[in-house]
Amino acid sequence: MSFDYDLFVIGGGSGGVRAARMAAGTGARVALAEEFRMGGTCVIRGCVPKKLMVYASSFSQAFEDAAGFGWDVPSASFDWTKLIAAKDAEITRLEGLYRGGLNGADVTTYDARATLSDAHGVTLSTGETFTAAHILVATGGRPFVPDVLGAEHAITSNEVFDLPEMPKRVLVVGGGYIACEFAGIFNGMGAKTHQFYRGAQILRGFDGEVRGHVSDAMIARGIDLHLGTDVVKIDKQADGLHVSCTNGAVCVVDQVLYATGRVANTEGLGLESLGLSLGRTGEIPVNEYSQTAIPSVYAVGDVTNRVNLTPVAIREAMAFVDTVFRGIPTPVDHDLVPTAIFTQPEIGTVGMGEDEAAKTCDIQVYRAAFRPMANILAGRDERMLMKLIVAKDSQKVLGCHIVGPAAGEMIQMAGIAIKMGATKADFDRTCAVHPTAAEELVTMKNPIEVAQVA
Prior knowledge:
single chain; alpha/beta; globular
């Protein structure tokens, strides 16, 4: 059968763009359709603008700390509109790079919504139709907002980057990394920040001690964190949004930001009409090669709800290209993925947490908690936390967890060692870099406890 394209990619995010470019590099005829802007969640309304806002919000603490190092900063003011303008300019630049990369790879692009008409057919919102030997769905995810009375008055991470002015009072709803990151951002920018989470502790799924450490630090920094608390309804009144809580209180704010999870962008794509059953949150089930139950249709990135991180989507895309266009069957490796959470303080983590590891084998826990050098002259009590989780018998390092400045930078390097199967002895025989916080990773000599399998 003759097709218009060898590959048609639906979605112009990190995974889709990488797959399109790399497949085109093999000589394949490739097209990509994106209905909004090239770059996807990460570039347009996710990782990139969020990290820029984290940087912006961190200056308030830097100005306070400067006095301890001899600097006199008499006054400082923050201009939200300047930050948003600078952010917009950077996003536009990055989108241009994404488009330029596709054009340079001879990928045909369509600024339109694409849906599947059959196993090899794609229909665009412009009315055009095409056939392809392979179709790759890389449409990502979107924020989920619960069915709460007055939810139409709330915003999500899709809208927060384009607010015309900074709210002075903010409620962040949720306890995951996105919620905690935005709570830190608004708090650092000077907003009175509340955070509601219905669970017993924020950051479910992370190491228990890390969760508690970060929670305490966020509260110490001024975030009004309410655990075991959820929203009942939101009323818009003249003086702001009146949020009724499950504890009976009413919180009055200027903005309510929901960060209560994400669902896959599969609605209306035509997948179910082709006989493909979707998951609970709309995700596309795939095998280890990112192939769906329809042999010609593949999916990568957040739309599959495996490990929802930009670098993982890119690796899934590369494995797809190797498998389908280079003839090298390559399963996706989702094991030991290092990641950073840009809470304030920052988290870097790779591998298993203490409780998770204790369910698999006898473990040893190495722990260091200390004030980083910069906090001493600044007069801050906030401490860093570092943990190594080690299998008692093999001495293999099963997990590494860091909370504090540059945790994300450090965990990338630790991730290499742990991915290679490093043992505690390997860490011990590595010379320390002094004076750094990172040297604690190679100088922790005695386990603080030995946890038995539950």
